[in-house]
Every structure is written in C-alpha cells, then in structure tokens.
Amino acid sequence: MNPSHEDKVQKSSHCAWQIHYHIVFPGKYRKALLDAEVTKIIKETAVRIEDRYPIEMEAIGTDKNHIHVLCSAHPKVAPGRIVQMFKSITAREIFRRRPAVKRELWGGEFWSDGYYVATVGERANWQMVERYVQRQGCPKEDLQQLKLF
User: Can you give the pTM of this predicted structure?
Assistant: First the structure.
C-alpha cells in the first residue's frame, strides 16, 4: 500500500484517471474475526493484489467485524469487481494461514455478501458539494461557483 496518492493522476496508454473508492464490507455473520493477525494477513495480501491487478490500495482499516478499504483503480475495473477480487483472495489467504478461523464460520465463507461503495472526491469535500447543490436557485450573489480545478 502506497502512501497518500490522492492528488496523483494515474495514467495508462489510453487514459488518465483519478478515481478513489471507499469500500466497506462486513465479515460473515458479523463475527469479530478481524484481530491483529488477520488484519496483518489482509494487508499483506492487499500488497500482492496491487502487484497483480490495476488497483492501488491507499488505506485499509478494520474494526472487529468489518473492513474499510480506500483504493484507486483503472476505470475499466468496476467497483464490484474490486470487492469480488479482494474478498476472494483475502479469504483464501486467511483460511490458508489461519485454519482455525474457517472452523468458526459455518459455511466456510469469510466475508458477507454485501458491501458499500462510494467515490471519494478529489478537489472538494462532501459538505462543500452538498451545500453547493442545496443552494442552487439562490440569488447569484449568495452562490459561489464550485471550483473543480
């Protein structure tokens, strides 16, 4: 995982992008399985995912029963695909390195099926954009144009 690259424009042969996703998903049955050792396995595995796929893991944070991932990816990689790859590869590695974890889960799956995903803005924070949208239709002197660049 690389340090803060939120302002860096990524480039490939035919496009340039600045797309950041905030992804959240729980462990199966919301069991508190994300201890320090499992979190370490997840973070080490995330580095290998970066090496294999056009995804950059920018930050990973875990609570006892769910994970937050901040990542950037090539536009051709859908957020759902990122989640699918991340869940599949990390679960396989957790079960390989910590077999006792699999015994705690009835169906043999580590992650729950659902997830949350949102894009994270580059040059404006959420409150600024929300205020700008809410103030549409106000007199122009009260409304300042939102600067994107």
Answer: 0.77
Q: Are 100 and 31 in contact (CB under 8 A)?
A: no
- The dihedral sign for the CA sequence 29, 32, 34, 38: negative
Residue-wise pLDDT tens for the chain (149 aa)? 554 455 678 888 889 888 888 899 999 999 999 999 999 999 999 999 999 999 999 989 998 999 999 899 999 999 999 999 999 999 999 999 999 999 889 878 999 999 999 888 766 665 565 666 577 656 655 545 545 44
Among the CATH numbers 3.50.50.60, 2.60.120.340, 3.30.70.1290, 3.40.720.10, which is that of 10-122? 3.30.70.1290
- From residue 77, alpha-carbon distances to 3, 48, 55, 86 in Å are 21, 17, 8, 12
Q: Which residues contact 73 (CB under 8 A, 6 or more apart)?
A: 19, 21, 53, 54, 55, 56, 79, 82
- Residue 83's closest CA among 115, 109, 53? 115
**Cα-Cα-Cα-Cα dihedral sign, residues 59, 56, 114, 36:** negative
Residue with tokens 């769910």: 66
Candidates 134, 95, 122; CA nearest to 111 is: 95
